[in-house]
Amino acid sequence: MKKLMDIDIADIVPFSKGIIVARKDILKSGKTKISFFTYDVKLERPTASTRSVYMLNKFGENYEEIEKQLNDFIYCDAAILPNNHVAVVYASGEIGLFNDKGKLYWTGDLLYKNCPVNGVTGEGKYLWCVVPEGNCIVRYSPSTEKIVLRIGGDSSTAFLNPVSISSYDEKLYICNYQSRKIRTVNLKDFSVADYKTFEEPVFRFIKTNDREIVELESGVYML
Q: Sheet holding 9-15: strands in order across?
């Protein structure tokens, strides 16, 4: 693994050449400043970026309209769906669905057994989220407003405090804080397997430009 940065990170978003990082700095006044930069994984160098580039890659082409309807655009996860709709999920379980014009058409709290969901990634007409307190992941149908599938939870040890989810090549990648593992779910048969194990908690996994990026407790690394 190669360490890329150990700054205080508010968010990381993939883009075509690598990742866009929202960096958090505490000013002398006590206020928080967020600044943005890109990291090109092939050239292995950072470049100053802009808020609009970050927003475009996180929320899609209607980011300006979506931003008007969000209280916080940094501390949330977003998924751009095949129909250009966008799902936004907060750690509280609050979810917002935006149409292809950026208009909010549904919002509410998504809970599983009274535990809030977190993270989001798309699979066709479905959304997948993690349930950190429930040690599981759930598949949510926006059209029926129901959770239609759960993997893990109860007595299962498939996931231990899952904190984020992403999808690549018909697989889900789930970062588990407690077990320090990334586990995968094959979307063809829903089988669960180990992918990577670390010596410290893992918070985020991104595949971009033929590289793999992880955010660990000690910083951001390229595998």
A: 9-15, 18-26, 32-40, 45-48
Q: What is the pLDDT along the chain (223 residues), one digit of tens a residue?
A: 999 988 789 999 999 999 999 999 887 887 889 999 999 999 988 999 999 999 999 999 999 999 999 999 999 999 999 899 999 999 999 999 999 999 999 999 999 999 999 999 999 999 999 999 999 999 999 989 999 999 999 888 899 999 999 999 999 999 999 999 999 999 999 999 999 999 999 999 999 999 999 999 999 999 9
Contact 223, 215 (CB under 8 A): no
**Which residues contact residue 10 at a Cβ distance below 8 angstroms, ignoring those fewer than 6 apart?**
22, 23, 24, 34, 74, 75
User: What distance in Å separates the CA atoms of residue 97 and residue 81, rounded to the nearest whole number?
Assistant: 10
Grouping H, G, I as helix, E, B as strand and the rest as coil, residue 82 is: coil
What letter would DSSP give residue 93?
A: S
Q: Cα separation of 128 and 112, whole Å?
A: 12
Task: Give the C-alpha separation, 165 to 33, whole Å.
Answer: 27
Would the CA dihedral through 50, 52, 55, 61 be positive or negative? negative
